[in-house]
Amino acid sequence: MSKKTSYQLMQGNEAVAEGALASGVSFFAGYPITPSTEIAEILADRLPESGGKFIQMEDEIGSIAAIIGASIGGSKSLTATSGPGFSLMQENLGFACLAEIPLVIVNVMRAGPSTGLPTSPSQGDVMQARWGTHGDHPIIVLTPSSVEEAFHYTTKAVNFSEKYRNPVIVLMDEVIGHMRARVNLPPQSMVERINRVQPNMPPEWYLPYERSANGVAPMASFGDGYRYHITGLVHDAKGFPTANPNEARDNIRGLFAKIERGFREICLVDYELMEDAEHAIVAYGSMVLSARSALEQLRKSGIKVGLIKLGTLWPFPRFALEHYLPQLKTVLVPELNMGQIYREVLRVNAGKSQIEKINRVNGTIIAPDEIVKTVKGMIR
Amino acid sequence: MKQIKTEIRLAGSGGQGLITAGIILAEAAILDNKNVVQSQSYGPEARGGASRAEIIIANGPIYFPKATWVDILLAMTQKASDQYSFDLKAGGIFIVDTTYVNQIPTSSALAIPISSRTREKFGKELFSNIVALGVICETTKVVSAQALQAAVSARVPAGTEKLNTDALAFGRKLAKEAIKKNNGVEVEVIEADS
Question: Above pLDDT 70, what percent of chain A?
């Protein structure tokens, strides 16, 4: 055995739990579901150690309701689930969007629809994460493609939720959730923590939904002496229901404006071997792993192909494609669904390049060889 | 540096401890300063359903986390043997637990009644997975014996370290016997460890 190393073996779900703790999450409410259960298991153990709270709820409706309440009480809050549970959370997710409650939902995707293939990987919830709850609303969706990213993206998700007062979804596929890899994580003290802005005016002056110059309203915690009203109805700056068209417009447009302001920061994108690329693979989650392996083989056979790795799915980082499309002949989008991000790529492409897809919905993942074969076929 | 990548699949049924064995093997690889990825596949059942763990150990980057053509295959049920023996690379090492595998698909397999010998020795099959790790370590040297020992001790429940250490040694002994019985046919050592 050689010298001691600071590396450890860690599972994706475990990394999410560590990321939650490192970013200051102090409340978890959830209902266990494969393939996300390890997150709840670990936090049930670890949260009470650091003074946090863990509650196993009666179902996922109660779970999101509980984290909304905890967040309003001032705790950074998170829940973890999979497709069937995520479906149950949609109504209250919309409430959290409109009421601007910071919270994080981790959805470790499994093959659906319905109960689906409980232990098999899928990326079928991409559009559900965007539009699963009704009404026009912005949402932030991050998707890690390695165990280390599961840690870092969870901390980013918590930070974005606090900064923008918006729900953030960590959309992870089963492959990343369940795989174990050698990781070297930073100590908790090195992890950036962003806290929501609190009001500093006297309680009687406080308008809970009056936006600051940055587009986000300071958020008082219930119990801090600031009495205010929270509702799922469209509301005015005082938080009370309104049907006044101008106030309704300001409410909904304000939701979008704060996310648009943060667009560049929120969009996590990485580029690999793109400088001279004539062809690109656009991938996220476990498909990044297949794509990287394919890239290595394709480059060896002299094909100039690169990788655009999407770490943020929503808002869709369209600039990542727009920047490279002029130099690209073909773009391939491999996904464990019937082509949910493929449609976005088509939309941004607007007919400029040849766009192809590989889809898989049988509970297995797309192997590197299939990507290699498809790229070679596209070029021919 | 020459890139060496070893893909390992441990296959059997739920309850045989193969995922735990996979995690221990991966942790041993980290102690050997190797890069490693471990993944698994199992049905909804806690016991009885098909279960497999995959470990990829390399001295360079690992992109794709799943095994495709395996260098080392352990089959602890007939179904696992039937299903995965075709995925073995030419020259790969195939270890079958003949307690549960009656029809061995190739004469080049290393046939050891791992579970029944474990039951004889320890009174229960509980340690079969650790015995199997001993067999793998002895026949393939894919991880160093010291690293495997340390990884086992770190992972098993407190108070069972001694029994598990014995199980590991027993596995090595079984492997040596089996290699000898194979008419001295040397099992190809995939990688010499420093």
Answer: 99
Q: Does B54 touch chain A (CB under 8 A)?
A: no
Q: Kindly indicate the confidence band of residue B180, based on its pLDDT and cuts at 50, 70 and 90.
A: confident
Q: 0.90 exceeded by the pTM? A: yes
User: Tell me, what's the pLDDT at A266?
Assistant: 98
Query: Which bin fits B2, alpha (ψ -120 to 50), beta or left (φ > 0)?
Result: beta
Contact of A115 with chain B, judged by CB distance below 8 Å, is answered with no
**Residue B44 sits at the chain A interface (C-beta within 8 Å):** yes
Cα distance between residue A332 and residue A359, in whole Å: 11
**What is the per-residue pLDDT for A2?**
41
The burial of A134, by beta-carbon neighbours within 10 Å (0-12 exposed, 13-18 middle, 19 or more buried), is given as exposed
Task: Give the residue with greater pLDDT, B42 vs A179.
Answer: A179
> Nearest CA of chain A to the CA of B159: how many Å?
22
What's the Cα-to-Cα distance from A9 to each of A12, A305, B9, B34, B109, rounded to whole Å?
10, 31, 18, 11, 30
Whether the complex's predicted ipTM is more than 0.85 is answered with yes
Domain B5-181 is classified in which CATH homologous superfamily? Pyruvate-ferredoxin oxidoreductase, PFOR, domain III (3.40.920.10)
pLDDT over threshold 80, residue B187: no
Residue A271's DSSP bridge partners are A308
User: How far from B130 is each of A217, A281, B122, B172, CA to CA, in Å?
Assistant: 57, 42, 12, 10
User: Is A270-379 assigned to CATH 3.40.50.920?
Assistant: yes
Which two structure tokens, joined as six digits, stand for A346? 């088509």
